[in-house]
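Please check this record.
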Amino acid sequence: MKVLVAVKHAIDYNVKPDIHTETGQVDLAQVKKAINPFDEISLEEAVRLKERGHVGEIVAVAIGSAEAKDSLRHAYALGADRALLVETDQPLQPLAVAKLLKVIVEREQPQLIFLGKQAVGEDYGQTGQMLAALLGMGVGTFSSALQIAEGHIVVTREIDKGTETIALQLPAVITSDLRLNEPRFIKLPNLMMAKKKAIETLAANDLGVDLRPRFTVTRAVEPAPRPGAVQFATVNELVKQLRQTEVLV
């Protein structure tokens, strides 16, 4: 079975980006980037499925500028067999990314397509669902456990009231949540070998996809600062405060 894993070169989750007070937009120009952690979980799961004998080939796909090759080399070091970059310097919204991934899926014909449930940064959380709709495939979102069976995959996914388990006919689209696994530590020799591996590159503008944005981000703002913690000497003082703030009536 071939597995395709979408890998986004996103804002490093350890970095807090700044917002321009004049433009109201997030400054991404000098922000450190790395592989999106939810996509790394997808890669780890694909590697584990390969180790259990379910998967024969793992193809990692990134969409973005040339710097996204760094995340593809991370994918190589983690265990991907091939890497493909759909190169563009144009900022892309989820629908455009889903359409580009659809072209790659139709070319590669994988039986399983992995995406992170969202990308840190914009946190849209839409691409997996859009891709499944464009492909006419079933989708298991927010997956926290997977099991391959004959011709289908069983997905445990988190919902508001707990978890539910669904069975999807293959091929299918899966989006990964944090509890699916913990990615393995990558050894230095693997990173060094990954630098020597080839990355196939396609130009996004050559794939015949409409990349125009569908919405405009008018302004980004910092969240309001949280009030400091208060320690009460007695329970009565706490209850009084809760009533004053109308938490208790």
Q: What stands out?
A: The chain has a mean pLDDT of 92. The chain is about 25% helix and 25% strand.
